Amino acid sequence: GEHVESVVEVLAKGLLHHHVLEIAVCGWNDANIDRDILGSTDQPDGFFTAGAANTGLTSGSTTWANVVLLESTVDVNNALTQNLCYITHPSLKGTFKTTVKAANTAAFVYDNGNVNGYPVITTSHMLKNASSEYGIIFGNWADLIIGSWSGLDLVIDPYTVATYGKVRIVINAYFDVKKRRNESFAAGTMK
Length: 191
Fold this sequence. Notes:
Elements lengths: L1 E9 L2 H15 L3 H8 L25 H13 L7 E5 L1 H9 L11 E2 L2 E2 L2 E5 L11 E7 L3 E14 L9 E13 L5 E6 L1
Parallel strand pairs: 2-5
Antiparallel strand pairs: 1-8, 2-6, 3-4, 4-5, 6-9, 7-8
């Protein structure tokens, strides 16, 4: 599982007494989970971990063929159902907006919020490799299971930073993410 921790230091004790829940939620940061699943090459069960199923299908320049290959891979594996979309980095989405599908056409890879007829979601937590290629994943996201154990563990520590007139709030949580079916996803990189 993944341990996620967030620490928030609050200057005014009065603010803490009246708004502890809002402070805790604002301090919560799920970036660690995103990075391990979407942007890591060395975390267990990440989309870009060496040896992960259907990973490394595309690399190099953004082409219409590479985009379609991701969808085709999921389709060949009989997983082209339910909650389908692409997830990528905002920079690659920008490239999609300026990349034509074929020569002498005005049809771009990104069209009206979609790529290849499917929605596109972006996150800056997506992989960027040493070749300046960005990760892209196409899949049936209904087959991604996110488990949480014990809820949020909230500790209010009035002592550690008391000499600065602050109160420290520590939030801990435990998560794990697994693919129900590896065949439901296809991942690669493009630039």
